[in-house]
TrEMBL record:
Region feature (Disordered): 21-72
The organism's taxonomic lineage, starting at the top: Eukaryota, Viridiplantae, Streptophyta, Embryophyta, Tracheophyta
Listed Pfam families: DUF617 (PF04759)
GO biological-process terms attached to the record: hydrotropism
Name the UniProt record assigns to this protein: Protein MIZU-KUSSEI
Feature: compositional bias, Low complexity: 42-68
Biased composition (Basic residues): 28-41
Domain of life per record: Eukaryota
InterPro entries named among the record's database cross-references: MIZ1-like_pln
């Protein structure tokens, strides 16, 4: 049932049935919008008197004293969710799908069957939190945190662990080198069971040194699955 659901749900998400009859097509990413950059209002220059220039200079000096907060940085990465039918889900982040060394590899406490069950409603948010009061976790990079507390759609689900890509994980990534976007099953690809996977483009947002997130980018004609993974250095949810 789980494999059938993945085939029915994920494949239409990345390969819509209604395709154009042209030989080439352009896929627009939903989360990236540059309209605000292309349509900037024109700037105007007006002459000012010496008194008004003095006032404006003092105003600008006061405005310069107030430092604006840094804008979040955004980039696109390749995200792969995979796991055995009866095992835990893994989340792999890569900048190059041909590489077998992921920039981030996490093992979630969520089983593959539970993940599919949560995704049936079209919304999946996985929040990973670490305790900022621990000295060894207070200032280290978020991707170096070894253990996370996991919340799946608001419910505490256990603990996730950062992993290094072992021989079996590298073998899976080698098998999936030809897959850019899609979902499917690899026979006995990881362990002794079939391995189910979903690969897609994710928007990587770095809000600050204490927050990062990954958001699934859906094609325009896809069913609109919302899937996000958050890395947070916060103790707000650790007492639940």
């Amino acid at each position: 049932m789980t494999i059938d659901f993945l085939r029915r749900f994920f494949l239409p998400c990345f390969f819509p049935s209604s395709t154009a009859n042209t030989t080439t097509s352009t896929t627009t990413k939903k989360r990236f919008s540059t309209s605000s950059l292309r349509h900037r209002p024109p700037t105007t220059t007006t002459a000012t008197s010496p008194s008004s220039s003095t006032t404006s200079s003092s105003t600008s000096s006061r405005a310069a004293a107030t430092v604006a907060p840094p804008r979040p940085s955004k980039s696109m990465v390749i995200g792969t969710i995979f796991g055995n039918r009866g095992g835990h889900v893994w989340f792999c982040v890569q900048h190059d799908r041909l590489s077998t060394k992921p920039s981030l590899l996490l093992e979630f406490p969520i089983s593959t069957n539970d993940l599919v069950r949560e995704m049936r409603n079209g919304l999946l948010r996985i929040a990973l939190e670490c305790n900022p009061h621990r000295p060894d976790l207070a200032r280290c990079p978020l991707r170096s945190v070894p253990v996370w507390t996991v919340f799946c759609n608001g419910r505490k689900s256990g603990f996730a662990a950062r992993r290094r890509a072992g021989e079996r994980v590298r073998s899976v990534l080698k098998t999936m080198r030809c897959v850019s976007v899609g979902a499917g099953v690899i026979p006995a690809g990881f362990g002794s069971e079939e391995l189910m996977y979903m690969r897609a483009n994710f928007e990587h947002v770095v809000g600050s040194a204490d927050s990062e997130s990954f958001h699934l980018i859906n094609p325009d004609e896809g069913p609109g699955q919302e899937l996000s993974v958050f890395l947070l250095r916060s103790g707000l949810g650790l007492d639940r």
